[in-house]
Amino acid sequence: MEVNYIRQAELLKALANPTRLEIVHCLLSTGCRNVGCMERGTGMSQSCISQHLQKLKAAGIVTAERSGNEVYYRAASPEVARLVAALFQEEVESYVL
Q: How far from 97 is each of 35, 47, 59, 69, CA to CA, in Å?
């Protein structure tokens, strides 16, 4: 199996930002999926969260799905969940995917 070091480095680079890491951890641990919910959960502004979500989406860390006026985000893969679980010494099974 060939390892894609560039992809893995990009994943780590995107998660290296504390705000983006908090957003991904929030998505995984609480199941909170829209910007309004993340705003209440993190205390960050809507515009700040939205900017970081766009970077996470571009890096393939989160996916977005529109339902009416709302956009719902989720972690893009179990790979992301395993990485975050390792960072926080948590069980990946406790995450909402």
A: 17, 24, 18, 22
Which amino acid does the sequence have at 93?
E
β-sheet bridge partners, residue 64: 73
State both tokens at 65.
């799905």
Tokens of 45: 């502004």
Band of the pLDDT at 42, cuts 50, 70, 90? confident
Cα separation of the two ends of the chain: 26
pLDDT in tens, 24-35: 999 999 887 899
User: Given CA atoms 11, 17, 23, 28 in this order, what sign does their dihedral have?
Assistant: positive
Tokens of 31: 């199941």
